[in-house]
């Protein structure tokens, strides 16, 4: 085992456990267990809010898959990835104060609480809870596989042991600390992600003999690696611009991101988060994807894109520094997994158990159930990740686009359009999800645009048309 690389990773895990232990004292002392465990008592400051949004959004895809794709496609993939820079800005500007004010008015702890109160419909909340459980469960399992594979490649231990270490690490600090532990560890992980990106970018440029030398090498291999259309000229301007809907506008509809807009302390914290979040996301997305392109000149001949980042770090950095840098993808994976774990747990406990199974549950009962459900979900994901089905990767992709198709309009129009009602919300959620699955299966990238574009348009039309027509019908019946 390469201890020079492993020791920095162990130090990182110890810091994460300390954060979990620190957050656990709030779980035991705050007046409302549910508010603290699932929303951090709405006390997040600007820096922590920005970092938790960045760390939750940044996943294995940003640090492993993204650089791997850039390695194969070239600078066009950097252009594609930069559309994610506006994510934090867009989420907080669209949802912002309005979402926080209405969530407090409804006393909403989860996104589903908000939807249930806004539309006064149990079916809206049930469909929302089921969507979150199914799709985020699958997405979480895929991330756990990524975390275990990274530990396996760095340490040389077998996959099962690596998976057990990863699962135990995440479960311990989420179980004891809840949402606050997730937010604090996300902040640590966000800083690690930023530092890892800067260090690896500089080391790669030096190892490649400077930017000019690296560009010359890439140009000699294939000039299209430097073009905005990709190595095989398959990325059209229409596809690149429509991709922005998936990773920019549509992110408003991701429950794991939008719930963070409910948790900030005050308007100043939100404004600081917008600035910090936009700058840091820009640096990470530009840095990591550019690293992927430059790596082609430094470590040529890698056939599996997911291996580019670890191979590059181990080649251009001394062992101990490679360990620090490789903590960045580990942080990205852990920060996404812990957020999804607490979200799925809240959907089961708050949105199903308390709302429909045991509305009179005592605080002690809710606390015990929350710990139990979080542990069960974590163990279930662990079991699924032991022998991950091939379909899991596709379910992970479904999770991103599918959840956007389900939630974006019920959230946004629920805030800004008074005529929107439960019939419109229900038809939008069901129609958005069904059309997304159909387009993905039978007509992916229809008319040269990303698959998510038409389902989001269809869910918008359904929301507006059904809300208006059902309102007129009710008015006529009243007359």
Descriptive terms for the model:
single chain; 479 residues; mainly alpha; Sodium/glucose cotransporter; 20 helices; 79% helix; transmembrane; Sodium:Solute_Symporter; Na/solute_symporter_CS; transmembrane helix; sodium ion transmembrane transporter activity
Description of the structure:
The protein is mainly alpha-helical and 479 residues long. It has 20 helices and no strands. The chain starts with a helix and ends with a helix. Belongs to the sodium:solute symporter (SSF) (TC 2.A.21) family. It holds the Pfam family SSF.
Uncertain segments = none
Straight-line N-to-C gap = 78 Å
- What is the helix fraction of residues, given as a range? over 70%
Strand content: under 5%
Report the total helices.
20
What is the mean pLDDT? Answer: 78
What overall form do the CA principal axes indicate? globular
- Rg: 22 Å
Q: Sheet bearing the most strands, described?
A: none
**What is the C-level CATH assignment?**
Mainly Alpha
Number of E-type strands: 0
For the record, the count of structural domains works out to 1
CATH superfamily: Sodium/glucose cotransporter
Order of helices and strands: HHHHHHHHHHHHHHHHHHHH
Instruction: Kindly identify the CATH topology.
Output: Sodium/glucose cotransporter
Keywords: Cell membrane, Membrane, Transmembrane, Transmembrane helix, Transport
GO molecular function, one term: pantothenate transmembrane transporter activity
Subcellular location: Membrane
Family: Belongs to the sodium:solute symporter (SSF) (TC 2.A.21) family.
């Amino acid at each position: 085992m390469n201890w020079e690389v492993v020791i920095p990773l162990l130090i990182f895990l110890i810091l994460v456990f300390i954060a979990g232990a620190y957050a656990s004292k709030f779980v035991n002392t705050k007046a409302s267990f549910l508010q603290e465990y699932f929303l951090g008592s709405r006390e997040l400051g600007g820096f922590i809010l920005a970092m938790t949004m960045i760390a939750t959004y940044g996943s294995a895809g940003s640090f492993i898959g993204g650089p791997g794709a850039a390695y194969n496609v070239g600078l066009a993939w950097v252009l594609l990835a930069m559309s994610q820079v506006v994510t934090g800005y867009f989420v907080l500007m669209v949802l912002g104060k309005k979402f926080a004010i209405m969530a407090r008015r409804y006393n909403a702890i989860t996104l589903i609480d908000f939807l249930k109160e806004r539309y006064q419909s149990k079916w809206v909340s049930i469909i929302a809870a089921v969507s979150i459980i199914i799709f985020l469960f699958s997405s979480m399992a895929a991330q756990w596989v990524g975390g275990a594979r990274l530990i396996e490649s760095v340490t040389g231990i077998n996959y099962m042991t690596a998976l057990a270490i990863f699962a135990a690490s995440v479960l311990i600090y989420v179980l004891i600390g809840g949402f606050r532990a997730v937010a604090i560890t996300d902040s640590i992980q966000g800083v690690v992600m930023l530092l890892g990106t800067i260090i690896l970018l500089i080391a790669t440029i030096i190892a490649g003999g400077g930017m000019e030398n690296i560009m010359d090498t890439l140009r000699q291999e294939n000039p299209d690696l430097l073009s905005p259309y990709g190595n095989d000229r398959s990325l059209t301007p229409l596809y690149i611009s429509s991709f922005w809907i998936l990773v920019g506008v549509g992110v408003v509809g991701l429950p794991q991101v939008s719930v963070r807009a409910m948790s900030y302390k005050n308007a100043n914290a939100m404004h600081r988060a917008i600035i910090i979040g936009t700058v840091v996301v820009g640096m990470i997305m530009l840095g990591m994807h550019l690293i992927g392109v430059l790596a082609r000149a430094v470590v040529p001949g890698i056939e599996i894109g997911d291996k580019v980042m670890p191979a590059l770090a181990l080649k251009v950095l001394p062992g101990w520094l490679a360990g620090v840098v490789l903590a960045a993808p580990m942080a990205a994976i852990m920060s996404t997994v812990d957020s999804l774990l607490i979200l799925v747990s809240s959907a089961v406990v708050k949105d199903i158990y308390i709302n429909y199974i045991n509305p009179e549950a005592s605080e002690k009962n809710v606390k015990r159930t929350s710990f139990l459900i979080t542990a069960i979900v974590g163990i279930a994901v662990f079991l699924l990740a032991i022998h991950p089905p091939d379909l899991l990767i596709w379910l992970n992709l479904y999770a991103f686009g599918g959840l956007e198709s389900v939630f974006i309009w019920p959230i946004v129009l629920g805030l800004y359009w008074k005529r929107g009602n439960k019939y419109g919300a229900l038809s939008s959620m069901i129609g958005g999800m069904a059309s997304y699955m159909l387009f993905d299966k039978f007509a992916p990238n229809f008319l040269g645009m990303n698959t998510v574009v038409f389902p989001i348009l269809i869910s918008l039309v359904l929301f507006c048309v059904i809300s208006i027509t059902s309102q007129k019908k009710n008015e006529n019946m009243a007359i």
